[in-house]
Amino acid sequence: MPDLGLEVLLKGSNMLRLLQGLWVALRISLIAVVISIPSGLLFGVLMTRKNVVLKAIFRVYLEFIRIMPQLVLLFLFYFSTTRTFGWNLSGETASIIVFVLWGTAEMSDLVRGALISIPKHQYESSAALGLTKMQTYLYVIIPQAVRRLIPLSINLITRMIKTTSLILMIGVVEVLKVAQQIIEANRMSSPNAAFGIYLTVFLLYFIACWPISMLAKYLERKWR
Amino acid sequence: MKKWNRILAAVLTLSLTAGLTACGGSTSDATANNASAADEGTVSNGSSEVYRTLDEIKESGTINIGVFSDKNPFGYVDENGEYQGYDIYFANRLGEDLGVDVNFVSTEAANRIEYLQTGKVDIILANFTVTDERAEEVDFALPYMNVALGVVSPDSKVIENLDDWDSNDQMIVISGTTAETYMIDNYPDIPLQKYDSYATAKNALENGSGAAWVNDNTEVIAYALQNTGYTVGIPSLGSNDTIAPAVSKGNTTLLDWINDEIKTLGEEQFFHADYEATLVDTYGSDYEESLVVEGGVTE
Fold it and tell me: What are the alphabetically sorted keywords of the record (chain B) (predicted)?
């Protein structure tokens, strides 16, 4: 077995610090997910409406968020809001805002895609059966759309969890930053620790994302 | 008709998006190179400046100091989650003499200037090398450390100067570092062997692929101390740069206080004590005089 420098994890409170870092990352991404999934659903439904102005506004918002690298958005909300408006947002608040904006934009586009993928005859048959517009959405369209959405939104959620690794750039000490701190602090005594620590970080991300994938698999099977 | 509506919407979207992105782009550019942006910000937010003056810091009871949290031995976090290192030792003393608590903020090399320009920290003490470009964005106080380049080579053939270089030998260098630029500008005849990372350059020297390795002198000194069989033949090469604390542009009350503090600390040989406490394990005592700047005075 090669020397992975895993003994470094047992020094002081290093393992606990890594777990606290993971909690910071998960807290930010989960708060963002909880807010952006429902708002994404709402906006996604609105985007399928035939209102040109509404569509144009959402389109601009979506493209803006999608074109901007997340890192630029983080800098924009953390530093530029202070510069232009004098708001002193904490790093965590700024990250939550950025992740909510990003999650909502991507989720609404996924919802829009799922909704327009439902064939037209589904709407027409519902109308023929005498269902109201509300009933059509509630009993026919949304149940089918949600099934198509699951793999896509799981992908988005895990992506949001992984992208928290960028927030160290605005001073939030999350799991990856703690890992770098531990590796650097032991640069002289255990030069191989990088392998072991990054392996541990990989496992922590995996443990965080795996249950979400399992839940998705379960739901997909249940709703087949 | 419907088709035209759609085309119109698409054109509108595109132009608006382009406009917005351009705005966004210029905002983020402004953060990097524009001191007047900070002034505009202060006008609209009503408070007088982005930064806090010395009195405001004293009143609040806490000073925010931006440091590295992963640059051992200058600023790092130990296994108990406590900040440690050469910069931290100095930061703690500043807090003590000001009579305030120190709140350490973890910064990265790429965002140190931003932190000062937005007043999110009062001082940056993050191994900040003084350069002319940076001095336009922030105000540097007196220096407290020297940095230069250094050359390490095997004991069997120690290289002590670069003037009579054997053209069959190659010099190891890490791409994108100041060492690479320096070698290209000043010794264009010395063949370079370039590597992307510290680890690969280290392997190259150990395998004998190059005759010597040029890098920051702190790095090569630490390397020679940890690995037997290697000597730093040239401990100080090229122009001497300095490391200094930095404050937001225009924050003169804090800047003057730090400068006075550094001069006063020089009388008690504070930075030598700092070196003994934090750097001696890594660099040994031989380089104390060449690395430490006491009382802000460089030779």
Answer: Signal, Transport
